[in-house]
Design goal:
Elements (H helix, E strand, L loop, with lengths): L3 E12 L2 E12 L3 E5 L6 H9 L4 E8 L2 E2 L5 H6 L2 E4 L11 H6 L8 H14 L1 H5 L10 H13 L5 E5 L7 H16 L3 E5 L3 H7 L2 E6 L2 E7 H5 L2 H7 L3
Parallel strand pairs: 3-8, 3-9, 6-7, 7-8
Antiparallel strand pairs: 1-2, 1-4, 4-5, 9-10
């Protein structure tokens, strides 16, 4: 069995005096797609932001590739090979699709390899090639999410974290993006997804963690959890 690429132990964090995460234990193995599911306000987004260094961790450890990155600044986290695609895409208005994607490569200096990776992204999402000069903020929601994926991929991450990729998108767009995530994972990129749509998350991921009020309450393979009556009733409407 593969070793964990990232392992969280007793992780706590929050915003000022408000604690959100209460001793999170979680690990994602190399080559795996893992997902974090739970209701609104459970702490899912805060968890990704804490790993990225955007939210200050108050305790515990984040061991990534053998190193503790608990106190690392966001640029150091990216430099270590962790990319974060945030909720709501967060593309830059006024910049083209191409320039938004290339922002993800700001720590790289291998120009020819960057351009080669850009072409790989365009092969994965041909519509982005067609619209590479278009203001990214004028794309449809699904196309903006493709652009955000591309910005994450071009940093050449070992771990790609994606927050709520299906949010507000039509079912057809969600299906295409789900297929893309599986294709991206086949290139060797490990993934950690936060997703409120549990059915979609379980279709893509191999392993899942259920978070309630800042704590992991259940974890297991997505196949196992899909058959769990509590999960089916509380999160899948079955």
């Amino acid at each position: 069995m593969a070793e964990p690429l990232i392992k969280l132990s007793g992780l706590t964090s929050g915003y000022g005096d408000v604690q959100v995460l209460w001793g999170i234990d979680l690990e994602v193995r190399e080559g795996e797609i893992a997902c974090i599911v739970g209701s609104n306000g459970a702490g899912k987004t805060t968890l990704l932001r804490t790993i990225s260094g955007l939210v200050h961790a108050t305790g515990g450890s984040i061991i990534y590739d053998g190193n503790d990155i608990l106190r690392a600044q966001p640029d150091v986290v990216v430099g270590q090979g962790i990319a974060h695609v945030p909720e709501a895409r967060r593309l830059f208005r006024g910049l083209s699709v191409r320039d938004n994607i290339l922002l993800g490569a700001y720590l790289r200096d291998d120009r020819q390899e960057i351009l080669a990776d850009l072409e790989l992204i365009y092969n994965l999402f041909p519509i982005l090639k067609e619209r590479e000069k278009q203001d990214a903020s004028t794309l449809s929601g699904g196309e903006q999410q493709m652009c955000a994926f591309g910005r994450g991929i071009i940093s050449r991450p070992r771990l790609l974290m994606i927050d709520e990729f299906s949010l507000g998108l039509a079912p057809q767009a969600v299906e295409r993006l789900s297929e893309a995530l599986i294709e991206i994972n086949k290139t060797g990129i490990t993934m950690l997804l936060v997703e409120q749509d549990v059915i979609t998350a379980f279709e893509v991921a191999h392993y899942a963690f259920v978070i309630e009020t800042g704590r992991v309450t259940l974890n297991g393979s997505t196949k196992e959890l899909s058959d769990n009556p509590m999960i089916r009733q509380a999160y899948m409407g079955i």
